[in-house]
Amino acid sequence: MKDTLILGIESSCDETAAAVVKNGREILSDVIASQADFHEQFGGVVPELASRMHVDAVYPTISKALSDAGCTLDDIDAVAVTYGPGLVGALLVGLSAAKGLCEVKGLPLVGVHHLKGHIAANYLCFPELEPPFLCLCVSGGNTMIVRVDSYTEMEILGRTRDDAAGEAIDKIARVIGLGYPGGPKMDKAGQGGDTSGYKFSRTHMTDTLDFSFSGIKTSALNLINGIRQKGEEPDIKDFTASYQQNIAEILLDNTLKAAEQTGLDRICLAGGVSANSFLRKAFDGAAEENGLKLYYPNLRLCTDNGAMIASAGYFEYISGTRHGLDLNASPSLKL
Ligand code: KG4
């Protein structure tokens, strides 16, 4: 059977990314132009500047993805592109570039939901992985437990009612002076720290797989303020280790509940926060204890990239999904 090559394009936040993936599983190229260093001076992503930087980077990134894969647009079967959720101006840049290529080369356009891309990162790392399975999607803007029924169909079993786990981490990282991007910096800061050195109160919700992170975030802020009022500073190593451990436990508790309720014994992690070492360790231990099979993407594929969009796009493409050139960016696109 002929191989299917998908060009994937991602520009939903501060990474301009493009990749070529073969048959949904094999990465032929994976190019990422990150703006993270630039946005660091502002303490977060500035949407208007992000859009402009995507404009500069989008075609060079796509060209490099094609040349690294040793192919041209004539070898590509379809263009997959993130059309939501994300920053509207940022999404429009990748989407417009994809549409331009499709119009000129007569290629099919496949719009991809960003989170479906994060889930598909697991298909790239584990060739044997097939649905159904549970996926904990944890990124800067989303936290949800998804039952993945097939490559294209999935249902949300639980979601955050307030902050995403990534937001709760990024906010506290900023307050304690670690800067942006908070997630990786807090992960590093907490290495070797005492995970029970500081106590936080958490929101307890029964009879639901939903999450809440505003309680623990407020508890951390109050703790920091209380310490600072005494003219002291929290011990960064222990504080960040304890905070991340607590967040990991909140995520783990509901995921284990979901596994029990659905009877699914395979669990994937996806999204930027799935790179977190405290989270991975907590899930590793629980998976072994409960006889569950755990999957998480390698670090490069946890955060935004084009390969995951190409993989998710491949499965949409072979199931018949096609979008018209009137496809618009959808900043709050539902799964
Ligand atoms: O999935 P992603 O790249 O972008 C979104 O779609 O949101 O996730 C970004 C989030 C940010 O909140 C970032 O701080 C977090 O992922 N992140 C981490 C780590 N690496 C990235 N959070 C905790 N520990 C990490 N090692």
Fold topology:
Elements: E1 5-10, E2 15-22, E3 26-34, H1 36-40, H2 47-68, E4 78-84, H3 88-105, E5 109-113, H4 114-125, E6 133-138, E7 143-148, E8 154-159, H5 165-175, H6 182-189, H7 214-229, H8 236-262, E9 266-270, H9 277-290, E10 293-295, H10 299-302, H11 306-318
Parallel strand pairs: 1-4, 4-5, 6-9, 9-10
Antiparallel strand pairs: 1-2, 2-3, 6-7, 7-8
Helix pairs in contact: 2-3, 4-11, 5-6, 5-7, 8-9
> How confident overall, as mean pLDDT?
96
Structural class: alpha/beta
Q: Using the CA coordinates, give the radius of gyration.
A: 20 Å
pLDDT under 50 segments (min length 5)? none
Distance between the termini: 31 Å
Summarize the main sheet. 5 strands, mixed
* Annotation field: number of helices: 11
Provide the helix percentage.
Answer: 40-55%
The count of strands amounts to 10
**Associated small molecules:** 5'-O-[(R)-(carboxyoxy)(hydroxy)phosphoryl]adenosine
Strand order of the largest sheet: 3-2-1-4-5
H/E element order: EEEHHEHEHEEEHHHHEHEHH
Shape field: globular
The fraction of residues assigned to DSSP E strands is 15-25%
